[in-house]
Structures are given as C-alpha cells and as structure tokens.
Specification:
This protein is an alpha/beta fold. It folds into two domains: about 110 residues, Rossmann fold, CATH 3.40.50; about 100 residues, Arc Repressor Mutant, subunit A (Orthogonal Bundle). The protein contains eight helices and twelve strands. Strands 2-1-3-4-5 form a five-stranded parallel β-sheet, sandwiched between helices. A four-stranded mixed β-sheet has the order 10-11-9-12, covered by helices on one side. The chain has a three-stranded antiparallel β-sheet with strand order 6-7-8, with helices on one face. Helix 3 packs parallel to helix 4. The protein is globular and about 55 Å long. About 35% of the residues are buried.
Amino acid sequence: MQQQGSVFVLACDEGARDLASALRTFHWAAHAFDSLAALLDSLQAQVVDVLVLQGASSDTAEQIAWLRRAAPAAALVWQVRGATSAGRIAALEAGADVCAQAGMEIQEWDALLRSLCRRGRRGGSAWRVDAQAGALAGPAGQLLPLTPTECAFFVQLLNAPGHRLRREELLPAEARGAAEGAARRVDVLVSRLRGKACRLDIEFPVLAVRGWGYMLRPDGERQGSPGVTARPDCPDA
C-alpha cells in the first residue's frame, strides 16, 4: 500500500514513539522526536504533511508557534489530556489546527490525519523532492537532478509554499556560515539550478523576491501574482 503522508510527532516521553510506531502500521511515514530542536533539524531535510505535539508544558504555545513558523503548510495537531478552554484557545491562536484528546484510538488518528491531508497543504505545490532519486519531480513528469544541498534548498521551499523565505534560511545550517556569505551562496545555487532546468527544458518553479529571497511559485502563477506572503515570523518587505 502507498504511503499516506509524512507525520512528525513531538513529545517528551515514549508516547511519541508509541504513536509514530502505530501510525506506521497504517502506512504513514511517521517519525518520533523527543526535542523541538531535533524536529526542526529534520525539517531541513524532509517535507512534512502533519505535525503532532503531544502533552503540555509551560511553553506549549511557544512550541506550537515554532512549529507553525517552521512548516506553515503542514497541518498541526496538539494532543493533551484535560486541557482547559483557555489552553485550547491559546494553542489555536499559536497555530494549532486541531486540539485532540488523549487516549484516541489509532483508527481515529488515521481518520483525523487523512481528513487533514484531504484538505491539502496550505498553498501546496505539485512539485516534490525525491530524496532517494536525488531529484525534483514535477506535476508533468519533469525530473530535475539535485545535489544534496539543492535537495535541502527545495525542502525548505516546499515546507513553506506561498511564503517568501530569506536567502540565509535556504541552506542547511552547517552550510550557512555568515549571513552575507550564505546569501551569496544561495544566489549562486539558484543560478546553477536555473541553468540546469533550462538545459532540460523545465520551467523553473522558483521566484526571486527582490530585496528578500526566494519562494516556490504557486502552481499556475508567475512572478508578480497576488498571494505572495512573507513567512509568518518575518515582516513584510
């Protein structure tokens, strides 16, 4: 059976691993994390469909806000036992899409995740990174070969479709260095990708945002189209 989608589960106990393991039996590509930093690091290498935060702490709303900023296109579920109305409101205001009760059966989790994925990723793109093949796959069968750094570049864009990202955000953390140098390296990388796409007669699906960085072109739209936004943690340019 085909994989249903990618799910990242964050919790400070074994609950995350239990849920991720159970979801795999329903053909979800589920991964468990015991720290926010580890999850954010993985978002640099993989596009995610659903984020799940399990449990509550003094900084739950802040964690939810971090997750929403890191993957604005993904659905976000907060699961907690006995949350108050004020707690649920704070979670929703911070960026959660659903507040789920603790103790949900795995069949209900599967139904919930399928429902969220049916609604589609916010402004999602038909382009996909095929890390195994080392290529960007397009909706019309296009295949653009990618290096590992180029894969990481497109993963960042695909996790935030419809959002413009600063140049320095578009490289893996270990490859960034100084902000000015990182921006130049990204411009060179994009120039190389444009040339590669041109040689293969592939319309390059990335827009340059003047004075800012780059964004994934919304399907069917070109530069200057409405609907271009800054990433949630960045002010408009």
